[in-house]
Structure formats: structure tokens, C-alpha cells
């Protein structure tokens, strides 16, 4: 386990849907994009730990401590997601996800590691998303919890697609011991240390 020094600056945020997990961009192609710098005035040396893609939302940890970032991104720390998937997910599909599935990564095939997956029977108490999502009026949907300790690019989305249930909404709710809890979308909390 890595223990942080007091000199680092750390933040826990609820990344909104539609934001990139970066603070600004000099890329002219990204002028229309939204960045974390809109949410708060962060220190210059801040970095996001384990990014969430533009269409994903939820718990994102930020730090100025590179060693803490490396530790959390390592396979020692679990990350839990709630995924709303298209269709009534079957027991077989859940078991496939638990055992690992084949996805594409960096132009190659990759077999995901076994992980914890279960169907959530009650709709999670999450804030409404800024962009409407197809819901059960247009056919069945299911919520699942998926806990990984690896984090390939768009991994959860690729995994649920691989078993025939594409992800409609993805919210990270936990990193190690740190929970999203009742944070509101766009909330930023400064913390002395990240107790993962």
C-alpha cells in the first residue's frame, strides 16, 4: 500500500457526462469539448487518476502525486461501475462477464481478467443524466454492478457489448474505499489524502 505525503493536493469529483478527463486542450479539434477546468480552479500540476471517457460519468480522483496515481492505476485497487445495459441481461451473460471475455484493445484481442459482476434489481439512486437515455419504454434495460482492478480503454463498454448487452449509461461509483456516495454532478471536494 502507498501512503501519501501531506504536500500533495487531492480532489474527489463527480465527473459529468460530456466532459473529457483533462483540464484544457490546445487542440483546435477539441474547441467544442468540455474540460474539468470548468468545474474548479485546480493546481497546475494536477492529473486525473484513471480517466473516464467523455460519455462516462461518476467518481474521478485527481492528485498532484504521481506515485499515488500509479498506485491507484495499478491492479491493486478495485474500481466499481454501475452500467445500464440494453436488454434484460441473462444469467449466462453475467457469468461470462465474471469469467472474462475477449475484447479488442490496441488492435489486438485481449481476454479480460475475472471480475465481480451482478445484476442490480432496484434502479440505483443516481442523479439524472444531462443527456436523455433510452429507457424501458423502448424495450427492456438492466443495471449491473461490475468491479474491475484493470482499466483498459473503454473496457466496461467493450465487455458488455461482447456479451450482447451494449452499455447505455456508465457511472463509476467506487475507487478502492472511496465512494461516490451522494455527491452531485460536477461536485468537487478537496481532501488531504486519498484513502483508497
Automatic annotation (TrEMBL):
The family this protein is said to belong to: Belongs to the pseudouridine synthase RsuA family.
Record's keyword annotation contains Isomerase: yes
Sequence ranges assigned to domain Pseudouridine synthase RsuA/RluA-like in this UniProt record: 11-162
Enzyme class: isomerase
Source lineage: Bacteria, Pseudomonadati, Bacteroidota, Flavobacteriia, Flavobacteriales
EC number: 5.4.99.-
Superkingdom of origin organism: Bacteria
GO process terms (BP): pseudouridine synthesis; rRNA processing
Cross-referenced Gene3D superfamilies: Alpha-L RNA-binding motif, Pseudouridine synthase I, catalytic domain, N-terminal subdomain
Gene Ontology molecular function: any one: pseudouridine synthase activity
Organism this protein belongs to: Hyunsoonleella pacifica
Entries under InterPro entries matching the protein: PsdUridine_s_RsuA/RluB/E/F_cat, PsdUridine_synth_cat_dom_sf, PsdUridine_synth_RsuA/RluA, PsdUridine_synth_RsuA/RluB/E/F, PsdUridine_synth_RsuA/RluB_CS, RsuA_PseudoU_synthase, TruA/RsuA/RluB/E/F_N
Descriptive protein name: Pseudouridine synthase
Keywords: Isomerase
Claim: Isomerase is one of the keywords in the record: yes
Amino acid at each position: 500500500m502507498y501512503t501519501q505525503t501531506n504536500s500533495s493536493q487531492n480532489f474527489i469529483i463527480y465527473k459529468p457526462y460530456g466532459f473529457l478527463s483533462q483540464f484544457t486542450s490546445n487542440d483546435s479539434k477539441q474547441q467544442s469539448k468540455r474540460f474539468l477546468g470548468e468545474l474548479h480552479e485546480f493546481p497546475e500540476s494536477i492529473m486525473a487518476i484513471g480517466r473516464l471517457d467523455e460519455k462516462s460519468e461518476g467518481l474521478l480522483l485527481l492528485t498532484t502525486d504521481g506515485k499515488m496515481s500509479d498506485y491507484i492505476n495499478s491492479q491493486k485497487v478495485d474500481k466499481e461501475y454501475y452500467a445500464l445495459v440494453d436488454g434484460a441481461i441473462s444469467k449466462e451473460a453475467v457469468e461470462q462477464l465474471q469469467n472474462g471475455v475477449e475484447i479488442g484493445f490496441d488492435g489486438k484481442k485481449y481476454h479480460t481478467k475475472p471480475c465481480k459482476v451482478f445484476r442490480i434489481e432496484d434502479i440505483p439512486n443516481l442523479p439524472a443524466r444531462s443527456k436523455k437515455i433510452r429507457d424501458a419504454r423502448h424495450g427492456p434495460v438492466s443495471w449491473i454492478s461490475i468491479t474491475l482492478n484493470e482499466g483498459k480503454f473503454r473496457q466496461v463498454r467493450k465487455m458488455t457489448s461482447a456479451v450482447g448487452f451494449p452499455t447505455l449509461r456508465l457511472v463509476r461509483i467506487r475507487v478502492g474505499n472511496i465512494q461516490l456516495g451522494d455527491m452531485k454532478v460536477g461536485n468537487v471536494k478537496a481532501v488531504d489524502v486519498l484513502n483508497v
